[in-house]
């Protein structure tokens, strides 16, 4: 009797290990494309963003990202396109419903994500460096140079670090 109970327990343990070890390991693409999308939670300029009036900010929520952009949700669909849902507070220049804002691509080996940064409002995908990508966080950095003809700030090279969390 003891041998049959031990055999049943051994078979049960082997079955549990067999089923749990077969679970596919998630890739960065899996994390990026699952769920309801991503909401911007932190936006920083690591070297201080300088406006035309010479004020400087590190927290981009302090005057760079508009209030109406703070509830935007971006979604990376498996079709290769990035979508923007403007949320409840819609900016006058944003579409009032979810719409495609461009294509995205990921290079998991080099940790690069080509994406539209929603508050840039351009047609070009920006090549961002992936700092972290899990089910709980998408954190990227993007370095760019402003020239004299750019409207929002002083000429210079800036690095933005953007942290997104799963949308609710």
Helix content: 10-25%
- Average pLDDT number: 87
Distance between the termini: 53 Å
The H-and-E topology, N to C, reads as HHEEEEEEEEEE
Q: What proportion strand?
A: 35-45%
- Classification by helices and strands: alpha+beta
- Segments where pLDDT lies below 50 for 5+ residues? 10-20
Number of helices: 2
Rg estimate, integer Å: 22 Å
The number of strands is 10
Principal-axes shape call: globular
For the biggest sheet, the summary is: 10 strands, antiparallel
Structural summary, described in words:
The chain is an alpha+beta fold. The radius of gyration is 22 Å and the shape is globular. Strands 1, 2, 3, 4, 5, 6, 7, 8, 9 and 10 form a 10-stranded antiparallel beta sheet that branches. It has 2 helices and 10 strands; from the N terminus they run ααββββββββββ. The longest helix is centred in the N-terminal third of the chain and has 20 residues, at 2-21. Mean pLDDT is 87; it is low at 10-20. The chain starts with a helix and ends with a strand.
């Amino acid at each position: 009797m003891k041998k049959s109970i031990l055999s049943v327990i051994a078979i049960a343990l082997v079955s549990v290990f067999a089923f749990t070890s077969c679970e596919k390991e998630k890739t960065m693409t899996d994390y990026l494309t699952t769920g309801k999308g991503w909401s911007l939670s932190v936006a920083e300029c690591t070297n201080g963003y300088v406006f035309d009036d010479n004020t400087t900010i590190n927290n981009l929520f302090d005057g760079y990202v508009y209030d109406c952009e703070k509830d935007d949700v971006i979604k990376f669909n498996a079709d290769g396109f990035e979508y923007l849902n403007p949320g409840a507070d819609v900016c006058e220049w944003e579409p009032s419903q979810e719409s495609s804002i461009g294509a995205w691509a990921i290079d998991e080996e080099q940790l690069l994500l080509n994406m539209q940064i929603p508050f840039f409002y351009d047609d070009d995908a920006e090549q961002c460096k992936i700092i972290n990508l899990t089910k709980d966080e998408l954190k990227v950095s993007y370095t760019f140079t402003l020239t004299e003809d750019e409207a929002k700030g002083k000429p210079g090279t800036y690095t933005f670090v953007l942290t997104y969390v799963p949308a609710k």
